[in-house]
Amino acid sequence: MLRSLYDWTMAQAEHKHALWVLAAVAFIEASVFPIPPDVLLIPMIIAAPNRAWLIALVATVSSVLGGLLGYGIGFFFYDSVGQPILEAMGKAGSMAEFNEKFNDVGFWAVLTAGVTPFPFKVITIMSGWTAMPLGTFVVTSIIARALRFFIVAALLRKYGLPIRDFIERRLGLVFVAFVALLLGGFILVKYL
Predict the structure, then answer these.
(1) Are 121 and 32 in contact (CB under 8 A)?
(2) 93-119 as b/e, with b when 16 or more CB fall inside 10 Å?
């Protein structure tokens, strides 16, 4: 079953609409979707290493645009829902202090979340919620997502064939490692 799923993913990665699917996944992952675009990005680059830069560009642009949606969710829904609740609880003052502290390190928070496996959507929504300056958010998102996706693209373009051979020979081990990393990321997010 795992082999057929791998073969199906590789076939989808070579499909003529794969870039559009990647764009959609990268967009919604940056605001609400729990699965990172890497699940498509990596097989797409392995399947077509000559398109690595285009694939990374599509993922970057779509992720930044999706990040703007996440920012909007945090910005617009905090005022209408979150703030009245906090005021009723007498916590509005502590929120202002949190917002100031977050925005003091906001560049680094966005950069770190954008480059690492940490869910980017958490930071995009928090950036809107704390009213981080939009320019800072956009520039940092572009830098972070470009770094992440273009580094992956460069590594896979250069070492793609040996990586593909390794994955195909040790598919079970690679799958277990991927699931462990994914679960570890969710556990880190929950307890940090």
Answers:
(1) yes
(2) eebeeebeebbeebbebbbebbbebbb
- Percent of the chain residues past pLDDT 70, beyond the cut: 64
* Domain presence at residue 60: yes
Secondary structure class of 131 (helix, strand, coil): coil
With beta carbons less than 8 A apart as the criterion, state whether 14 and 47 touch.
yes
Average pLDDT, the chain: 77
pTM exceeding 0.90: no
Q: What is the mean pLDDT of residues 160-165?
A: 68
Q: How many domains does the chain have?
A: 1
User: Other C-beta atoms within 10 Å of 161: how many?
Assistant: 11
116 token code pair: 């690492």
Encoding tokens for residue 28? 């919604």
